[in-house]
Amino acid sequence: MRLASSLDPATRWNEISILLTDNEGIAALNKRYLDKDGPTDVLCFRYEPGPSDKAACDGELIVNVERALEVGPAHSGVPEELALYIAHGCDHLAGQDDQTGADFTQMRERELAWLKEEAASITEIIE
Fold first, then answer.
1. 47 lies in which domain range?
2. CA neighbor of 49 nearest in space, from 15, 3, 6, 7
3. CATH number for the domain harbouring residue 116
């Protein structure tokens, strides 16, 4: 969330939970909360702070592991696909939208850059 926070520095984050599910589970939630049919890769919900939350937001990411298993091998791999879904959800939690093709492209480029930066940081630590 650190990288996504740079998009909205005024927002403080308390807790972000991640729920792993399958096509059936995420499709049911997609229908229930967004009135959309079928599975998707990630759903996210941002909860604004209440009076006792010390002005910090909470968030929830619901990640479709089954989809990552299906499409990951054709992309960069399953772990990378899951990381991309999480980055995409964090991008949305930070207030970004992908309703247009240009918005989606901008978000995807940013998410891939975040993942590359994080991978470089991990490599640096290991070495």
1. 2-121
2. 15
3. 3.40.390.30
Q: Angle 116-118-124 (CA atoms, 0-180°, nearest 5)?
A: 105
pLDDT classification of 1: cutoffs 50, 70, 90:
low
The answer to whether position 126 is within a domain reads no
* Domains of the chain: total: 1
pLDDT in tens, 76-86: 899 999 999 99
Q: Could you tell me if residue 127 is inside a domain?
A: no
What φ, ψ does residue 64 adopt, rounded to 5°? -90, 95
Q: What is the spatial distance between Cα 79 and Cα 102, in angstroms, rounded to a whole number? A: 26
Token readout for 37 is 């049919």
DSSP 71-109: HGGGTT-HHHHHHHHHHHHHHHHTT---SSHHHHHHHHH
Does the pTM exceed 0.85? yes
Which residue bears the tokens 């939208």?
A: 97
CA 98/CA 76 separation, integer angstroms? 22
Mean pLDDT, all residues of the chain: 90
